[in-house]
């Protein structure tokens, strides 16, 4: 809200600028970014340099104090060519050469169990390098660099919270100590595959080069021994299991074989080889007889039907004779034909009523009757034969059905038998396979070989591998430089003050009156008012001249003569600038008077080398006339009214009508009436003076005054009715200011050849 109020004031005086075309030149943007970064680094070079020196120095000191370690390396090659003595699938198969298998072997070499074996073999429990309990207590100065060692254990326990201590038995303490030694051993061990080869590199670090070589070689030997032990153990376990399994399979094969034979005997099956059984043979023969009987029955029925049909036909007898092929019927048929011929002859010869013809006809009838009787007997015989064939067929069918039922039952029994036989065969096969496998393993156990071999034993290292002091210092240098830059960036982002009038103008809309360079260290004992006169060609004096010119251009008609110098808080250089500016104006021939309106601190008269016996207080209280308190600066002719020696309330005095009359009178008599005001945020008199002045120059300490504070002070002046002509930055480090990327950066530093500082 304050910013908005401040910005509204200047916007009423000037029109908004018309935005021009926007340029997207990447090279210009990159160059600007580089300049900004370089400037930031230069501005904080002291911080960055301090961090680099401290970080690198500490790292170098630590590197010098570190115990050198020697690394010995053993190379172990995993065999990928299998030399099998016997052609069978091994129980303990060789290692796979896949990456997963190599990583598994690496894990075995780094496992606590394997490390414990090496520790026991070499007796590292009694080595102080691995057993911290055997090391002497550290008392040198390097030990105390660790802050943790400076804090008593009781304090650490209190910080962690009171926890009951666990009482350990001697065995548990020994186990914990053993675990600590194993962990220390593993920390110094490095195991890794060599690229895409079958070689595993085993590195071990130790303070003693001979010890490093001994441990690395021992690890390789123990690894091969461990492989053989595991193979023998696996073979032993497999042999024991096979013995138990063989016994079970032998008993199972015997039981299944006996069950199959017993069932075959009970079921009446001839054999177990798939040969034809007795019932099957009988069934085949009976089936053949049944088929023949059925054929004969069908033939007899066909003949009977044909004979019965022919017996009813006109040619029945002759046809039946031809069909049956009976000699009797054929003979009777010939006799019948002969009698019919005789009857025909007799009829022709004797006539129709002749006795001979009658006798022949009677004989023919008898003969035909005999034929019919014979045919009837033949038909009856055929019918009997049909019934006989039917009975025989039915009997055969009954027997066939019975045998078929028996065969079906026998087939069911045969299925069960085959199942039992397969079980017996399977048991026998498994028994024989297990027996063969047992014999193979028993023979292979004697010729087991490890799946790896040592291709390079560890030699005694002559040079330490750790610490790499150069690398430590280099990394510390890079890390500290990075940290320094980060701290510089953090410090840059955390800056609360304004670094350029351009920033202030962008934030508030108040115009810039320029910057006032800080006086060099060699001139710190000289007041700015004296320095401006003694060094008229200096950058500081030029800043005052620039302020004077700017105010003249802002007031071409000369009506605005009363100028107030104000600030937000004390210590921003307001009084020093006011005194220096007043001397510059007086030295330029302008009739100038300066009033010390800060009745609380009363610090302006020492800057001018004048006295404070009578002053503004005495004039406002009526004790003295203005002419009686005016002092003249002997160096420039500047007139000066001190604050006076009174102690009444300043706000009552400065807000009185006499103060208004005094300012009005002085404005008529002088070209410049300069008021030195107390800070507006500290006391209220500054706002009263802002209402009396024609123009107010707002002073901001470069980089020190917080932005919120400066904007709040400016808001107080504007709300009091003051006419803020612009902002002036004081005590500017022109060298650091030149390192920023602001439009006015390097204003005095870039042209320092023009000034005589």
Fold topology:
Layout: H1 2-11, H2 26-43, H3 45-65, E1 70-78, H4 99-109, H5 112-122, H6 147-150, H7 153-160, H8 170-187, E2 189-193, E3 199-206, H9 209-267, H10 278-311, H11 316-324, H12 327-350, H13 355-444, E4 452-456, H14 469-493, H15 501-508, E5 512-517, H16 528-534, H17 539-554, E6 562-567, H18 574-587, E7 592-596, H19 604-608, H20 616-621, H21 626-629, E8 631-632, E9 639-641, H22 650-654, H23 657-669, E10 672-676, H24 685-692, E11 695-701, H25 707-719, E12 724-732, H26 734-737
Helix pairs in contact: 1-25, 3-14, 5-8, 5-9, 9-13, 10-11, 10-13, 11-12, 12-13, 16-18, 17-18
Structure description:
This protein has 757 residues and is of the alpha/beta class. 59% of the residues lie in helices and 9% in strands. Strands 5-12-11-6-10-7-9-8 form an eight-stranded mixed sheet, sandwiched between helices. A hairpin with a 6-residue loop joins β8 and β9. The two termini are 42 Å apart.
């Amino acid at each position: 809200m304050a910013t908005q109020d401040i910005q509204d004031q200047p916007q009423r005086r000037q029109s908004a600028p018309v935005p021009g075309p926007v340029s997207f030149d990447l090279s210009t943007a990159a160059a600007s970014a580089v300049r900004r970064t370089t400037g930031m680094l230069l501005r904080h070079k002291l911080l960055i340099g301090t961090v680099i020196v401290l970080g690198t120095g500490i790292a170098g000191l630590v590197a010098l104090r570190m115990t050198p370690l020697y690394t010995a390396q053993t190379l172990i090659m995993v065999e990928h060519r299998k030399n099998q003595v016997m052609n069978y699938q091994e129980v303990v198969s060789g290692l796979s050469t896949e990456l997963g298998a190599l990583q598994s072997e690496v894990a075995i070499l780094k496992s606590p169990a394997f490390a414990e074996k090496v520790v026991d073999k070499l007796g590292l429990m009694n080595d102080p390098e691995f057993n911290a309990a055997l090391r002497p207590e550290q008392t040198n100065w390097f030990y105390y660099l660790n802050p943790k060692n400076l804090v008593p254990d009781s304090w650490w326990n209190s910080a962690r919270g009171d926890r009951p201590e666990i009482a350990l038995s001697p065995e548990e303490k020994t186990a914990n100590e053993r675990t600590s030694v194993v962990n220390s051993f593993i920390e110094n061990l490095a195991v890794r595959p060599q690229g895409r080869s079958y070689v595993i590199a085993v590195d071990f670090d130790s303070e003693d080069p001979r010890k490093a070589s001994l441990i690395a070689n021992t690890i390789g030997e123990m690894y091969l021994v461990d492989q053989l032990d595991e193979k023998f153990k696996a073979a032993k376990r497999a042999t024991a299991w096979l013995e138990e399994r063989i016994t079970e399979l032998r008993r199972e094969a015997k039981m299944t074989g006996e069950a199959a034979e017993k069932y075959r005997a009970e079921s009446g099956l001839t054999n177990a080889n798939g040969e034809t059984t007795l019932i099957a043979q009988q069934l085949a023969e009976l089936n053949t007889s049944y088929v023949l009987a059925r054929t004969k029955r069908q033939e007899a029925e066909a003949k009977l039907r044909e004979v019965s049909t022919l017996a009813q036909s006109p040619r029945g007898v002759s046809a039946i004779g031809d069909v049956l092929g009976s000699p009797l019927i054929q003979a009777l048929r010939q006799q019948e034909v002969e009698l019919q011929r005789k009857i025909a002859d007799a009829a022709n010869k004797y006539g129709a009523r002749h006795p001979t013809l009658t006798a022949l006809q009677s004989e023919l009838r008898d003969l035909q009757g005999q034929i019919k009787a014979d045919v009837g007997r033949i038909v009856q015989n055929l019918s009997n034969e049909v019934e006989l064939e039917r009975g025989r067929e039915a009997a055969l069918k009954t027997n066939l059905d019975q045998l078929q039922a028996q065969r079906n039952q026998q087939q069911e029994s045969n299925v069960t038998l085959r199942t039992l036989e397969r079980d017996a065969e399977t048991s026998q096969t498994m028994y024989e396979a297990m027996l063969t496998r047992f014999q193979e393993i028993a023979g292979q156990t004697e010729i087991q070989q490890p799946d790896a071999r040592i291709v390079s034993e560890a030699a005694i290292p002559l040079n330490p591998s750790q610490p790499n002091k150069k690398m430590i210092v280099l990394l510390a240098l890079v890390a500290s430089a990075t940290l320094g830059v980060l701290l510089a960036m953090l410090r840059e982002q955390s800056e609360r003050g304004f670094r350029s009038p351009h920033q202030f103008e962008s934030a508030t809309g108040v115009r810039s009156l320029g910057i006032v360079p800080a006086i060099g260290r060699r001139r710190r004992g000289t007041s700015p008012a004296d320095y401006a006169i003694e060094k008229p060609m200096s950058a500081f004096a030029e800043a005052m001249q620039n302020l004077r010119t700017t105010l003249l251009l802002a007031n071409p008609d000369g009506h605005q003569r009363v100028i107030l110098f104000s600030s937000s808080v004390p210590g921003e250089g307001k009084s020093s600038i006011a005194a220096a500016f007043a001397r510059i104006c007086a030295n330029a021939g302008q009739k100038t008077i300066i009033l010390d309106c800060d009745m609380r601190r009363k610090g302006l008269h020492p800057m001018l080398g004048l006295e404070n016996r009578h002053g503004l207080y005495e004039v406002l209280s009526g004790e003295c006339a203005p002419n009686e308190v005016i002092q003249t600066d002997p160096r420039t002719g500047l007139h000066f009214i001190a604050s006076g020696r009174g102690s009444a309330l300043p706000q009552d005095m400065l807000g009185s009508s006499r103060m208004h009359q005094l300012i009005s009178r002085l404005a008529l008599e002088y070209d410049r009436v300069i008021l030195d005001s107390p800070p507006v945020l500290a006391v209220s008199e500054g706002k009263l003076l802002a209402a009396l002045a024609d123009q107010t120059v707002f002073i901001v300490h470069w980089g020190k005054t917080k932005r919120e504070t400066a904007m709040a002070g400016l808001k107080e002046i504007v709300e009091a009715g003051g006419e803020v002509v612009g902002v002036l930055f004081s005590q500017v480090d022109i060298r650091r200011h030149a390192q920023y990327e602001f439009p006015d950066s390097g204003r005095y530093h870039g042209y320092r050849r023009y000034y005589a500082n």
